[in-house]
Design goal:
The chain is an alpha+beta fold and 471 residues long. The longest helix has 21 residues. Bound molecules: flavin-adenine dinucleotide. The site of flavin-adenine dinucleotide has 38 residues, from helix 1, strand 2, strand 3, strand 14 and strand 20.
Length: 471
């Protein structure tokens, strides 16, 4: 490549870190900006009450189960190999292969599950999956020491003691997300990636640009302290805040809130401490509803094994809540003049009643030990949803010379790819249409994609909890 082109990466979450490291390895001079002082907080989710990055969290699920989306299944398997290698070389357990139990909506396998199993068969990894009702799978689970995690849960109200069908995925588990971010940030810094953190010098207020014909050219970024940082390429990986820096992206992305609640187990309570440890308890996900008539899978609730601090985290994905607010002048895509952006950190501390009800129903069935226990904490954590749940990693076509790049659109499943996402993204940044990554066609700039995945709903939808503030 031409001598050390410089890249300003905006955002030091999972997408920004992974991209920064991979670009550095390709020979770019990389500076990463983030408004949060991660050098001080070390990505600890409890150290900064203002932090809203989805990546700053105790844990996130690792799965390779992706229904018909074989490309994500393969990417997840590539990532899993990298996680296992990182665990080995670092001695840290950043990836925890606790297994994941995918509980079905009834005592039969759901449509999504059948698609997942078919694709696992296709890739020769079907033996890593154990279907509860299949005797052969149960035997294999036993032989591999997985049978204790093939848990049975009675279906409430069934008069013949039926239990939910379930598939135990021995490839699944979780990542210690914040710890992994810290690991990658320190690794990148040690290799020579420069980081500028803090709510003055690290907060990027705008992209510095000039007009070139009917396009623009990005020349760097301006931070809140007024300093201009020149760069050949600006790469924005700002998670659910990306549209606020690049309003062009509003055609592709919407911020929505995922509801999280935790319980805390006291270490002295030895029985619970052991029962919910990753050694004994898998990640559990429950599709509470079968696929609907329009082909949509909804109604998912999940729980992860306890953290070393005793936190048991439950997430509700059944409804992703939007927060529609007046959009800025000239924003290329708006719905009734509004767009959905993250709520303030303070307003993100409580979760809507619909989420509380679904989580409580889940707890009653799957975590009866906590049935009457108050939540230790609640939080809305902001997704960056794309039109089709695929990421948006590409040059912005309204800018010349490939000077503006985006790396975002995690859509609730990006964390697991931290070790390898950047390699694919850097290939696209460096090679554009000549990139060899098999993800290139899926991650393109694609304003023509049909408006789906809830992005068609707009401010009139009951999902919009920003109503009170905008009306
Ligand atoms: C509720 C929830 C559950 C999820 N569960 C899973 C899961 O189980 N498994 C999984 O694999 N993935 C999961 N995900 C997805 C995963 O967390 C995200 O895909 C990933 O963390 C996104 O990383 P990011 O770097 O794009 O964004 P973020 O983590 O949000 O980071 C963006 C960073 O950019 C910074 N920034 C933004 N704008 C600016 C600016 N102008 N100036 C300076 N800094 C800026 C922010 O401060 C932030 O640090 C989940 C997401 C959510 C919301």
């Amino acid at each position: 490549m031409s001598e050390s082109k410089s890249v300003a990466v905006v955002g030091a979450g999972i997408f920004g870190l992974s991209l920064a490291l991979a670009l550095h390895e390709k020979g770019y001079t990389v500076t990463v900006f983030d408004r949060h002082p991660y050098d001080e907080t070390q990505y600890d989710p409890d150290a900064d009450e203002n932090v809203q990055a989805a990546s700053v969290d105790h844990n996130k699920i690792f799965r390779a189960s992706y229904g018909t989306k074989l490309h994500y299944q393969r990417l997840a398997l590539e990532s899993r190999e990298a996680w296992v290698a990182i665990n080995k070389s670092s001695g840290a357990d950043l990836f925890v292969p606790s297994g994941m139990l995918r509980v079905q909506p009834s005592d039969e396998l759901g449509a999504l599950e059948k698609e997942t199993l078919a694709n696992m068969e296709r890739d020769g990894i079907r033996e890593t999956q154990f279907v509860k009702s299949l005797a052969g799978d149960r035997e294999r689970a036993k032989a591999g020491g997985w049978d204790a995690k093939l848990l049975e849960f009675p279906i409430p109200g069934s008069n013949d003691a039926r239990t939910y069908e379930a598939v135990l995925d021995s490839l699944g588990g979780f990542m210690r997300c914040s710890n992994a971010c810290l690991y990658f940030q320190q690794l990148a810094a040690s290799k020579g990636v420069r980081f500028i953190f803090g709510n003055e010098q690290g907060d990027v207020e705008s992209i510095v640009e000039e007009a070139v014909g009917d396009k623009k050219k990005a020349n760097g970024v301006r931070t809140k302290d007024g300093v201009i940082h020149k760069a050949h390429v600006v790469a924005v990986a700002g998670g659910s805040f990306t549209t606020q820096l690049i309003p062009d992206l509003s055609t592709h992305l919407e911020s929505s809130g995922g509801s999280l609640a935790t319980f805390k187990i006291d270490k002295e309570d030895k029985a619970l401490w052991e029962k919910y440890s990753p050694e004994q308890f898998p990640v559990i996900t429950w599709k509470s509803n079968p696929r609907n008539k329009t082909g949509k899978d909804t109604g998912s609730v999940y729980v992860l094994p306890r953290t070393p601090d005793g936190l048991v985290k439950i997430g509700f994905r059944g409804v992703k809540f939007t927060n529609f607010q007046p959009a800025p002048e000239g924003c290329p895509f708006v719905q009734d003049g509004k767009w959905s952006i993250p709520m303030s950190p303070k307003d993100s501390c409580t979760i809507p009643e619909a989420a509380v009800d679904s989580i409580r129903q889940f707890v009653k069935i799957f975590l009866p030990d906590f049935d009457q226990v108050p939540f230790y904490s609640t939080k809305l954590c902001w997704y960056t949803d794309s039109l089709d749940n695929s990421f948006v990693i590409d040059h912005v076509p309204t800018y010349t010379d490939n000077s503006l790049f985006v790396c975002t659109g995690g859509s609730g499943h990006g964390a697991k790819f931290l070790p390898i996402l950047g390699k694919h993204a850097a290939d696209i940044l460096h090679n554009g249409d000549k990139a060899t990554s098999f993800l290139r066609p899926f991650w393109r700039w694609r304003p023509e994609a049909p408006r789906r995945n809830g992005l068609e709903d707009g401010p009139g939808s009951p999902r919009n909890i920003g109503q009170a503030q905008v009306e």
